[in-house]
Queue: 2 jobs
Job 1
Amino acid sequence: MARRIMHIDLDAFFVSVEQTLNPELRGKPVVVGGRPDRRGVVASASYEARAFGLHAGMPLITARRLCPQAIFIEGSFTKYREASQRFMAILADFSPYLEPMGLDEAYLDVTGFESIHGSIRQMAVATKQRIKEELGLSASIGIASSKVVAKIAAELSKPDGLLEVAAGEERSFLAPLPVAKLPGIGKKAERILNGLGINTIGQLSNMPLSALKSHFGVSGELLCRYASGIDDSKVEPPGAAKSISRETTFGQDTRDRSLLKATLGYLSERVGAELRQKGRQAGCVTLKLRYADFTTITRRHSLVKAIDADQIIFDTGLKLLNRALSQERQPVRLIGIGVSSLTEPGRQLDMLDSSEQRLERLNKAIDRIRKKYGFTAIKTGRTLPLKDIFPESDDGYTLHTPSLSR
Ligand code: TTP
Ligand code: MG
């Protein structure tokens, strides 16, 4: 029996959440991402704004030029995370085979669920209705026999759409679409294919596999399968996180060592808090820097022993930072810190030496107080310079981009 898979994606997610909270924004060109006089890009644009050519990733300055009457909102990640959790909870009511992809989209395997809802189409209608009634948000849903086709169907149906591709119709459904609609085909691959005279997915599916492989290596095979609507990958519930990271772009490129250090300190605390909250320890710390000319570097350090202390994440990151800055004269645009090689803590308490025990007790106490009174209830010395620069809330500081500050 053919599988039935739904792909659900909320329409203009960040903007729509803002519109539910402020009805005056409804039906208007609205952009979430930041103020148009600051630098940054559009994170989400209402469909009214898209009519003027605005889209995610466009610089805010360009967006304002194309649509001066648009309303620009800084946004707040906390609101979007909450809406996302409620959205996923609704989906989980419909099927336990749920694979969230980011905040506002998910796959649902609904094979065999016809009997409960009459048809899968009616099930999708009911799903959309609950999302509308309970969250005030509109969703678009694609239904097909595979993830890749369901995703493309959902995107094609937007906004507030519902599109089902019957089993056996995958190939003819995909054939007339431009190659760029296929997941995995970015700007570069699109240019290569167009250069070869391949514009539609149908043309792509007729290319010899050897030609695809010579241009795209091992990915060639996957492209060939996708182009024919073949994708056996399962809808899988999320596994444990492989890494945890936080990053931020500065309002202005900076060489200010104390700002860089304090920001690194704050981001390290955010990473450490999530690491401990997930009950994991990390064996590797990675620093990320983007310089003024957009050159981006990552520097990693493997630790002898897995850790979960803010102090060690920060100290390791700071060493990497100092080394990187000594080799580069440009100002810094973005800084990020992450941990990976995550493991369950397996050690025994009495094996810890006293300095580790002290750190562990300290971080536990900090976590407890922050859980009760908010993140900024405790400001460590290393982050103090941020106090006068960034607005603070119970959830922590709001760095450069409020719609993404988490
Ligand atoms: P998308 O689902 O790609 O975009 P959207 O929901 O705003 O619009 P639609 O699905 O109707 O086309 O992404 C979901 C959210 O993720 C989006 O509201 C904001 C955020 N996002 C960014 O912050 N930066 C980006 O470049 C993109 C694409 C999305
Ligand atoms: Mg969306």
Note: Residues 9-14, 43-44, 56-57, 103-105, 158-159 surround thymidine-5'-triphosphate (ligand 1) (CB under 6 Å).
Job 2
Amino acid sequence: MVQTSPAVLILLGPPGAGKGTQARMLEEQFGLIQLSTGDLLRAAVAAGTAAGKAAKAVMEAGQLVSDEIVLAILKERLAQPDVTAGVILDGFPRTDGQASALDALLADAGQKVTAAISLEVDDEAMVARVSGRYTCAKCGEGYHEEFKLPATAGVCDKCGGTEFKRRADDNAETARERLKAYHAQTAPLIAHYAKAGVLERIDAMGSIDDIASGLGRIVARVSAT
Ligand code: AMP
């Protein structure tokens, strides 16, 4: 049977697991929309909105922004028409309260989570991955000092941009705090989605391309059921 309602995919995993990179690749491959609450919050911080002002210090400390703020920005984004193509939630939900709110929101629309895919990785490797990453300031393409350098030094492979930026919270100390928050508040959601019968697991310690192939196979399978 071909699925009629749009796919709602969740990528679960600690900081550095590759959620953002993989979500962008799935977006291109399947025509889905990536919804990253981290990106939405960073945009709110940059724009100086009330939500951004409240979130800034919490994000810099590597802790979780309140469910109230996160749900408000997510609902605002979900009200935009492009999401009817289906979504990949990257970095959301991160708490029990957010998972329940998402279930309720989808139930109201006669939908449910299609799959929650847990990217399984090793904690110490995550600190190294997060500490070395940066993005093109122009197009947002992600790079890493060790694992993914641009083909020509200092020039973005995708858009030719020459300015790069680093997230304020991508340092070893904050990465450890973010890992703690992940294990305390987000990892328990794996059991929530296992109980709902929609959990998928993938070994995310391999190369970006290998993980992308594995994820692509999962998404193709769950989208067709
Ligand atoms: P990310 O880009 O997903 O790594 O998120 C960066 C930071 O934004 C996190 O460390 C949190 O402070 C905050 N954040 C992003 N998404 C959420 C969420 N769903 N719930 C709470 N805080 C979040």
Note: Residues 39 and 77 are 11 Å apart (CA to CA).
